[in-house]
């Protein structure tokens, strides 16, 4: 199948392989990212609330912990996949991920069980990271080993859409549940529902994947008795293969990782926490941009079959280096109310026993909602003030356009990378070899982006500048993307239409 055109039955089988692999991988991404999508609420549930930013950073650190262990999952499950097979390995990762997500939805909050709450969440988050470390490499390898050589970029790009679609589905489920149960109820207990729903999604995916057969290339290798006896040693103990692993990491995956997470997760964090845009409006902006941008994964995967993988991926990184600061500066400026004319006669004040809410309306349609909550803590009255911005219609669509511009770069770097990685390594150690650089690049360099960028922003605050530099967090992804671009230009080959994958 690798070098010839597909028959009608082979093409039908290939689309089943893609659908079955994609559904399971999408659900794993949904499970993994729902934690990040609910970071603000989870920081209030599982961590002390004395300092909102400390709690939020703690949640982002726990979120990042799942990324940090992904390379270990890549080694453990990559080895298993190269020894036993692709199909059974990512069945195990799917069940492990689903069980961990379901369990997070059942953990009592910090107010109930104290420090045990964040400890349990961290343990389950680490299990999620291990599972995802084994899932992606298996799914990408499985699809690539079914696809014809000249169209590998196109067919593997469908797997590439699952990460973004998983984020999109997580946002959609969150907004649907929030709308159904109410804002207050969602913050108190409704946030658990998206985690618990995961059990149903995983059960459906397991049923579908049970009908899949093993990869033809791996089956052939197994029948010939050529399966690797020690995939880890052959992957990283062999100098030539280790060199390829390092080139894949520092010349492609690291830069791809930071561009991916900046364009989606840090964008959401920045809009909500730095620009202080309304919870629902923030997620609507990200969801619409994701919906518009997702088809481009397939386009750039297809295009990489024609012109090669290297220059498409590196162009996305280079553009990001020069584009991020002006784009984020514009995102920040359109959410500000300073200098706008307040319509005093349109100001609305709502009072309840423990809460005062003031809505200020401005001449361009922007609204500023200031909520002051009074509560008694240790016998003393404590007031918490929260500010949210509701963007005008024009600013709302400009914000969507700015996020979409970042998503174009995401699709450029991510669309071709699965085909690029699977073509780099031989079949008998492919699962192990490709999984490690991918998950270090995405799990550590990329996954730490929201935490490190937010940390840099918080650190930029001082007595002289108490508001901080809203663009300070961008230096991390810009630096990593620039370094990866330089290394990639020097060491990467421009792969396309590879005829054989041995």
Automatic annotation (TrEMBL):
Signal peptide per UniProt: none
Keywords per UniProt: Cell membrane, Membrane, Transmembrane, Transmembrane helix, Transport
Membrane-topology annotation of the record: Multi-pass membrane protein
GO-annotated molecular function: transmembrane transporter activity
GO cellular component: plasma membrane
Name of the protein: MFS transporter
Entry-linked CDD domains: MFS_ShiA_like
PANTHER family: MAJOR FACILITATOR SUPERFAMILY TRANSPORTER, SHIKIMATE TRANSPORTER
InterPro entries: MFS_dom, MFS_sugar_transport-like, MFS_trans_sf, Sugar_transporter_CS
Gene3D superfamilies recorded: MFS general substrate transporter like domains
């Amino acid at each position: 199948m690798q070098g010839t055109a597909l028959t009608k039955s082979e093409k039908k089988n290939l689309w089943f392989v893609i659908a079955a692999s994609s559904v399971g991988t999408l659900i794993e991404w949904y499970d993994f990212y729902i934690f990040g999508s609910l970071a603000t609420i989870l920081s209030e549930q599982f961590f002390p609330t004395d300092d909102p930013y400390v709690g939020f950073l703690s949640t982002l650190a726990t979120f990042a912990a799942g990324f940090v262990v992904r390379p270990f999952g890549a080694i453990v499950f990559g080895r298993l996949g190269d020894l036993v097979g692709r199909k059974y390995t990512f069945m195990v990762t799917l069940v492990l991920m689903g069980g961990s997500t379901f369990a997070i939805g059942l953990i009592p909050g910090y107010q109930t069980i104290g420090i045990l709450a964040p400890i349990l969440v961290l343990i389950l988050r680490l299990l999620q990271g291990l599972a995802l470390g084994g899932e992606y490499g298996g799914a990408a390898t499985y699809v690539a080993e079914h696809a014809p050589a000249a169209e590998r970029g196109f067919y593997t790009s469908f797997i590439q859409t699952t990460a973004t679609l998983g984020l999109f589905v997580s946002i959609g489920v969150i907004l649907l549940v929030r709308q159904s149960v109410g804002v207050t109820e969602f913050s108190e207990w409704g946030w658990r529902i998206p985690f618990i729903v995961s059990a149903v999604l995983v059960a459906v995916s397991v049923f579908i994947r049970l009908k899949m057969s093993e990869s033809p290339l791996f089956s052939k290798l197994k029948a010939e008795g050529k399966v690797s006896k020690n995939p880890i040693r052959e992957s990283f103990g062999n100098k030539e293969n280790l060199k390829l692993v390092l080139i894949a990491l520092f010349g492609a995956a690291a830069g791809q990782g930071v561009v991916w997470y900046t364009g989606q997760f840090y964008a959401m964090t920045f809009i909500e926490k730095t620009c202080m845009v309304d919870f629902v409006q923030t997620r609507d902006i990200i969801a619409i941009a994701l919906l518009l941008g997702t088809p481009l994964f397939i386009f750039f995967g297809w295009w990489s079959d024609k012109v090669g993988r290297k220059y498409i991926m590196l162009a996305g990184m280079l553009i990001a280096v020069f584009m991020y600061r002006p784009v984020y500066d514009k995102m920040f400026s359109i959410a500000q109310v300073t200098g706008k004319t307040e319509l005093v006669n349109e100001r609305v004040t709502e009072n309840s026993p423990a809460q005062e809410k003031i809505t200020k309306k401005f001449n361009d349609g922007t609204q500023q909602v200031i909520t002051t909550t009074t509560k008694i803590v240790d016998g003393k009255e404590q007031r918490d003030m929260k500010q949210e911005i509701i963007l005008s219609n024009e600013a709302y669509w400009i914000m969507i356009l700015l996020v979409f511009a970042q998503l174009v770069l995401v699709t450029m770097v991510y669309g071709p990378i699965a085909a690029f990685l699977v073509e780099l390594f031989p079949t008998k150690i492919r699962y192990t070899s490709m999984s490690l650089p991918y998950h270090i690049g995405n799990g550590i360099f990329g996954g730490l982006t929201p935490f490190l960028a937010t940390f840099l922003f918080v650190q930029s605050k001082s007595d002289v500048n108490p508001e901080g530099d809203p663009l300070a967090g961008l230096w991390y992804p810009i630096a990593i993307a620039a370094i990866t671009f330089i290394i990639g230009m020097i060491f990467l080959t421009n792969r396309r239409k590879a005829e054989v994958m041995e």
